[in-house]
Write a structure and sequence with these properties.
The protein is an alpha/beta fold and 192 residues long. Helix content is 33%, strand content 17%. It has 7 helices and 7 strands, in the order H-E-H-E-E-H-H-E-E-E-H-E-H-H. The strands form 2 sheets. It has a 5-stranded parallel β-sheet with strand order 2-3-6-1-7, with helices on both faces. It has a two-stranded antiparallel sheet with strand order 4-5. Strand 4 and strand 5 form a beta hairpin. Helix 2 runs parallel beside helix 6. The two termini are 32 Å apart.
């Protein structure tokens, strides 16, 4: 059918992809690397907690922007908040997630395009991101049909589902990660 296998089940490959993505997000000198982390898995598998840990603990909230789960919601005054950010996070894309790969903002972030930024009641400004990465979470694996998308995403499958009794509150997880932040970043840079 012409589709490439870009969804390896090898845990080591998943570690490498995560380390590479975080290292690039955390180091602004990687200006020409354009990738999107595509985290998928059933509910209660930790997708949201992983992306929130990267956003809040590893990079810091001031370095990140969040957008709604549908591209049609992206083009409002929130887009101005993308300027000078390291990461854009889109959580829980459930309705037609494949539309994201065709959206001009996804293409601009993972390519070398221009994003139209607009403040409320203001004219739009063209913004060409030099160091902006993209992360999204979805509940199911999508069919990737073209090399354009396959070359721009780093798929990361979350296969374990956590029972409610096994779950820790995200705040507790983030607090336990904060002291390990520098070691984790060092591991990411060493892995890439």
């Amino acid at each position: 059918d012409g589709k490439r296998c870009i969804f390896p089940n090898d845990p080591r490959m998943c570690e490498l992809r995560l380390a590479f993505f975080v290292a690039v997000c955390a180091n602004a000198s990687f200006k020409n690397i354009r990738q999107a982390l595509y985290v998928f898995g059933d509910g209660e598998c930790g997708k949201t907690t992983l992306l929130e840990a990267i956003r809040i603990v590893i990079l810091g909230e001031e370095a990140c922007a969040t957008l709604g789960g549908s591209p049609k919601d992206w083009y409002d005054s929130k887009t101005f908040g993308l300027k000078n950010k390291a990461l854009v996070v889109v959580q829980e894309v459930d309705e037609h997630p494949e539309e994201i790969f065709n959206d001009s903002m996804f293409k601009a972030i993972t390519g070398s395009g221009v994003i139209q930024l607009r403040k409320l009641y203001s004219m739009s400004n063209d913004y060409k991101p030099e160091h902006l990465m993209f992360a999204m979470s979805v509940n199911s694996k999508m069919a990737i049909k073209d090399d354009f998308v396959a070359s721009r995403i780093l798929p990361l499958g979350m296969t374990k589902n956590y029972l409610f009794s096994e779950q820790r509150h995200p705040t507790e997880i983030f607090e336990s990660l904060r002291p390990e932040r520098e070691l984790f970043l060092q591991w990411c840079f060493d892995m890439k």
